Amino acid sequence: MAGGKASARQKMINLMYLVFIAMMAMNMSKEVLSAFGLMEAKFAESNVDTSDKNMALLEDLKTKGSEKPEEFAVPANKASEMSNVSDKFYKYIETLKVDLLKKGQYSIDPETGKLPFEAMDKTDILDEAWFTGDRLSKNGEAVMAAIDTYKKDVKAILGTDVKYNKAIESFEKRFSTEKVKNKDGKNLDWLAYNFQGFPAIASYTKLTAMQNDVKVTEANMFNLFLGNTLDAAVSLNKYKAIVLADKSAFFAGEKFQGKVVLGKYANVTPTKLDVQGQEVDIANAIDSTGAAKLDFNVGNVGEHTISGKFTFLEDGKPLEIPIEANYVVVPRPNSATISADKMNVVYRGVANPMTISFAGVPDNKVSASASGLKKSGKSGKYTMVPTSGREVTINVSATLDDGSKASDKKTFRIKDIPAPFGEMAGKTGAFKLPRRNVEIGKVKAVLKDFDFELPLTVTGFKFKVPGQPSVTCSGSKLSGQAKAALRKAKRGASVQIFDIKSKSSGPKIKPAAPIIIELSN
């Protein structure tokens, strides 16, 4: 019984537990990480496309500024200033992304050109760089300062002209850095709410999305400066068909539901609409805003393409606007995720934390039942207090979006609370102590390698000095009779404290392992 070290068997159990938890975390998160990666790729593609369009708008403004300076000289100058401040802030965000990849040791695959989405699960990169406890670090303050500088620069370019009021209001909302209230009702700093504790790929995606906000702002301002004087601003040839799905992913067998709209809502009725190679009845598909409703079977699991075209009449001639978009079909869930938060068994008589969820189904449509199981208040969180038997089965059911039911179950082993160790002066097993320390010392019972807070109170024990009869003591300290026996013990003698009884606020506790103390004086 030396010094409280874990046995080889206990070390193996601890290692198996860590591997089990790690495997669960990987299985539960890789799809989410990939989803963030796909979103990031879409934002990055959009940023490239928007940059090209913004460059064309800027060149148009400069041309108009030289051709008609009385009308466009001032707007052209504002557009150039807007381009400069936007480009500066956009590049600054890019340095944050590069730094994130460098610190996380992530690199883009030279063959696919993609980031290692599923491997970008670290949450400590920006946490360590941007935060110190519940405050921002110097780097975090620099990020907020850069955002504030960009906002001030944009508003300074627009000035106090009332015709820009709506644009400023929209810009302020897009780049608002006000405190955000979390689900617990606590107000968090904007940077902490959006970046602290998130996986690296999520933070990287948010930075790319912020770059997209910069490009969108730039495009909005350029069009604002152009007004309605340029043909490009009103020509349908410059519009883009956009697919707005009711949700981003669908279960196999469901119908895709969403809308196809032009890049700008306009009450312009097309003469013809084709989707997926079939002509759509315009009378039933087009609403008052000019949006076309879609309704078709989504097909098998995987990524799919929506293709088609709007046909309009412009200047007496047919004008075709292509429809291009993608959507993803995911399989229906057929198994629940049920895990014990502490280890792969549950302990009798204590509140075992549990996380119970059903892939793709919100918590309010998931129900779980078992003997001793109850909700703990938070989403997906439960506590299990098993009492009798050697096993307990948790049954889980879920209601899917289409009203159908799915169910699953899992069985856990029930184990008793392990026997505690006897302890004195912070030591267990066999050790040396001065005689005085033993005389005034307090006997304790401790649960080692046990993942629950379960305080124990010693109610009694037996004390044995070599050559003398055992003495029964009440409470956690030596009785007068035990102290008298201790005084008769020789230097170097080994006294024993055994049959240590204790109690807890919950389950019955086994006697603690004895301790053997060699008297050092």
Question: How would you sum up this structure in a few lines?
Answer:
The chain is of the alpha+beta class. The chain has helices at 8-67, 69-104, 124-130, 138-158, 165-174, 190-195, 200-226, 231-234, 282-285, 435-440, 480-488; strands at 131-132, 135-136, 180-181, 187-188, 241-245, 249-251, 255-262, 272-275, 278-279, 292-297, 302-314, 317-330, 336-340, 346-347, 352-358, 366-369, 373-375, 381-384, 391-399, 405-415, 421-423, 430-433, 444-446, 457-464, 471-474, 494-503, 515-519. The strands form 8 sheets. It has a 5-stranded mixed beta sheet, with no helix packed on it. The chain has a 5-stranded mixed beta sheet with strand order 22-27-26-24-25.
Order of adjacent strands in the largest pleated sheet: 6-12-11-8-9
Mean pLDDT rating: 83
Task: Tell me how many strands there are.
Answer: 27
Strand content: 25-35%
Can you characterise this structure?
This protein has 521 residues and is α+β, with helices and mostly antiparallel strands. Helix content is 36%, strand content 28%. A 5-stranded mixed beta sheet has the order 6-12-11-8-9, with no helix packed on it. It starts with 7 loop residues before the first helix and ends with a strand.
Set out the fold topology.
Elements lengths: L7 H60 L1 H36 L19 H7 E2 L2 E2 L1 H21 L6 H10 L5 E2 L5 E2 L1 H6 L4 H27 L4 H4 L6 E5 L3 E3 L3 E8 L9 E4 L2 E2 L2 H4 L6 E6 L4 E13 L2 E14 L5 E5 L5 E2 L4 E7 L7 E4 L3 E3 L5 E4 L6 E9 L5 E11 L5 E3 L6 E4 L1 H6 L3 E3 L10 E8 L6 E4 L5 H9 L5 E10 L11 E5 L2
Parallel strand pairs: 6-12, 14-20, 22-27
Antiparallel strand pairs: 1-2, 3-4, 5-7, 7-10, 8-9, 8-11, 11-12, 13-15, 15-18, 16-19, 17-18, 19-20, 21-23, 24-25, 24-26, 26-27
Helix pairs in contact: 1-2, 1-7, 2-4, 2-7
